[in-house]
Every structure is written in structure tokens, then in C-alpha cells.
Write a structure and sequence with these properties.
Elements (H helix, E strand, L loop, with lengths): L3 E7 L3 E7 L5 E8 L11 E2 L1 H18 L8 E8 L5 E3 L9 E2 L7 H7 L4 H9 L8 H11 L1 H6 L2 E3 L1 H10 L6 H4 L13 H6 L18 E4 L2 H7 L6 E3 L2 E2 H8 L8 E5 L3 E7 L9 E4 L6 E7 L4 H9 L10 H10 L9 E3 L14 E3 L7 H24 L8 E4 L6 H11 L3 E4 L4 H13 L16 E4 L3 H28 L3
Parallel strand pairs: 1-5, 5-11, 12-18
Antiparallel strand pairs: 1-2, 2-3, 4-7, 6-8, 9-10, 12-13, 13-15, 14-15, 16-17, 19-20
Helix pairs in contact: 1-6, 2-4, 10-15, 12-13, 13-14, 14-16
Amino acid sequence: MRKLLLGLDAGQTVTKAVLFDAAGRQVAKGSIKVPLHTPRPCWVERDMNEVWLAAQQAIRRCLADGGVTTGREVAAVGLSGHNDGLYAVDERHEPVRAAISAMDTRAHTVLDRWRDTPVWPQALARSGQVPFAASPAAVLAWLKGHEPTVLERSRWLMFCKDWLRLKLTGEVATDPTEASASFTDVHTHAYSRQLLDLYGLGELARKLPPVLPCEAVAGRVTAEAAAATGLSFGTPVVTGAHDVDAAAIGIGGITPGDLCLIAGTFSVNQVVSDRVVIDPRWQVRNFVRPQQWMSMSTSPASVANLEWFLRVVGVPTAPGESVHDVIAGEVGAHLAGRSEVLFHPFIYGSPHSWPASGTFLGLRGWHTRGHLLRALLEGVVLNHRWHVDALSSALPVTGATRLTGGAARSETWAQMFSDALNRPIEVPHVDESAARGAALLAGTAIGMFTGIDDARALPTGGRSYQPEAGRVAVLGETYQAYLAAVEALGPVWSRLAGD
């Protein structure tokens, strides 16, 4: 009988279940899109039962795709998922309200109240980060002021993958990478009552889930979950990790100094380090290994912008033609010369002050959809550059630069990353990096691997890109215009938002 590992990755919009063999090679995959709901401006929510249903369906599709007729072939399950936001359950482990997504910005008013007070510098010094609108500190403080009964009814305040593990096993837990979203001391990796008190949330300490190592067996598949998913009763389920840490494991970016770029719903730019380097431009969070940290400079401003464009504008395709091939052709036809159109990819948020928003600048009557698409792709890359420049200004970024996520599937986009960052870019031959990282943690838990640095766990093969001098110069100039526009548009964005 085959011995397979299942990685379940619950992203912001899609839940993926992926099977891997004992060499870390992908065997099968199933994916289900989970709808986002925006009942009010700034609110981005998900139905928690829909999230669980999507996981069930993704697992069943994956098992069918892999020819798994009985779940016994799956030796262990690992999980990863989007961090931040909130998945709250009551004493019976039932949802208390709709989940709040990491793209939700309702709590920006809380940040306005905390900024320029002692909360800001104390949060940075103790937790290694300042809160943003969807961080648990801000979301819970908003709920305390606007929906206090939600907190009163909640028994556990969880993250997405921890909700799915609860449904799979009936056990409550989280891991060090996710626990560090708001309430752990950056030096000790442990929950800090002082941080909870700083945010006025001290009474919620008992509602935070227990923290287990990422590679620990946190529970086993229940009979009910087995019937729902096709997995076998009793299959070990590992604690898992925040999807950005899992993705770094999945593509082999686990050595201090390596730069990992995840171009998905979020722009994630991160470096593993052996020491704490604090700066408000990034978050210092626990890595999967003790006494290591992941410095992440992030914003909800990456490939989700293209998904928005396709939904609103559309790109027609012929029968059998891929929309991404059409995009590559249209962008390629307008790639020569300077950037005539500028795009700020802030449809869902930005690394800049609220309320920066998505913006096209420089439009003329002769511009086509191809010009807009080129601007959009460049804008996403330039936002990544802002984050990378921040990290590089204080951290030793001396290793390889690896790219994963939706943008990595596009050769045109991957080359733009190399040109905009003026760095060689590696795109490992890994289709689902976060699911792979979760599966490798599961394999470590049951002894299939000696650890995340086991040679058998490292990816092999892939594509590489070198900076092209002419395009480096063009994108360097575009970046200066991009930054100048961010500075100039601040008052305009505020006026449009009614601030």
C-alpha cells in the first residue's frame, strides 16, 4: 500500500487538498473556491460552515484524483491556512459569527485610536509588530466595542486552519507561527498577558487556543470527519503552520538570509532569521523552529488585483485558450518602452496609510486592455519591491530569492519580478507550496522525514530568471513615479473615502 501525505491549505479564497508521496512529489489535487461576503463596506467575511464544506469537497476530489479508494493510504494530514482575522466558536465548537477574513478592514478605526499613543511603540517592542486592520488585536478590540456578545459567547478564538483541524479531530490547538499574530512575546514565543492588557483584551486570555509544535500530532480524524472527507478514522492530523511559513518550507526557503516572495492574494515578502530585528514596516513572527523568526513585510495587494480585473473587465478567450496565455500575449505586445500607465494595486489594502486605494494613472484614449494589464502586473511587482526594499534595509538578505504563488505561474510576471528587484529569481518546481510544506510537517511528525531540512524534502528543478538591463532601468524609473504618486495621492484618497 502506498504511503501518502495530505496537505490541506486553506487560503483566502481557495481551499486546496494535495497528496504527496514519500519523496515530497505531488500525486493529486483537489480545490474548491470559498465565497467571500462583503455585507458592508470594509467587511470581508466567510461562512465558517462553507469553509469546512469546501475542505471536505477538496479532500474528496483529491483522493479521487489520486485513485485513493480507502483513506488508509493517507499516513498523516498537515494543515496550513491564512492567518489573522477571526474564527470564533462557542463551547459546543459551533461558529459564533461569520469568520472575519484577513482582507477585512473594518478595524481601521481602532488603529486610528491606537496610533500616536503608547500602544503603538509598546506593541512593536513586545510583539515585534504593530497591528493592522485584520490582525487579531484590532479585530477583537473592534468586536469588543461593536459586537460584545460575540466575545461573550466565544469559547475559542481561532484561525482558519485551526477551525478545520477542530472539525477533523474535535481538538482545539494552534501553532507558534499563528499564535504570534498579535499576542506572543517576540523574544519568548509565548503568549503575553501584558500584550493582551495593552490592547484592553486581558479578559480574553483563556479563550486563546493552546500552542503545540508545528510538527506535533494534534489529534486524529474522527468517525464523523472520516465519513465527510473519505479519510480513515484515526489518521494523525498535525498542528501545521501559517500558510506563509508552510510555503517557505514547501519551496525550500528555510535558511536564514533566503528571501521568499509569495505572490498570491497577499503580497508576502519574508526572510527567516536567527535574531529579532524590529521595524514597523514588517512583522517579526515565530518561525516553525524554536529560536528562529520570520520577518514578513506584507499587504493584501498582489494577485487578487488580477482576479478583480478579470471579474470586472474580463479577458475573452477562444475555445481551448487559457486566459493567462491571452494575458501574456496582450502584455507582451505592449511591453517595449517605458511604462505609460501606472497602477497602485490597493484594491483590498496597502502597506501605506489608510485609505490608499487602487488607482490607474496616465490613461489615454489610445491605450488598450494590454496597457492596463501591463500596468497591473507591474504595479503588483512594484508593491512587492517596496516590501523587499524595506526588509533589505536592515536584514541580511544574502541567499536565494524564490518566488511562489499565482504570479509564479506566469513567465512574463516572474521576469518582471527579476527586473523590478534587480535580482535573480528562482521558481521551484512546486505547484502548491503551502500544501507541500504542510505535508512535510505531517511527514516529520510520523517519522517519514527527519525534519523540514531533510534532503528528501527539498524541491528539485524549476525555472530561473535573470534581470534584463533595459527592463531594470524602465522599472526603476516606473518605481520612482509609483512612489511619488503614493505620496501625492494621500489627501485625494482620504477625500474619496470621506475622511
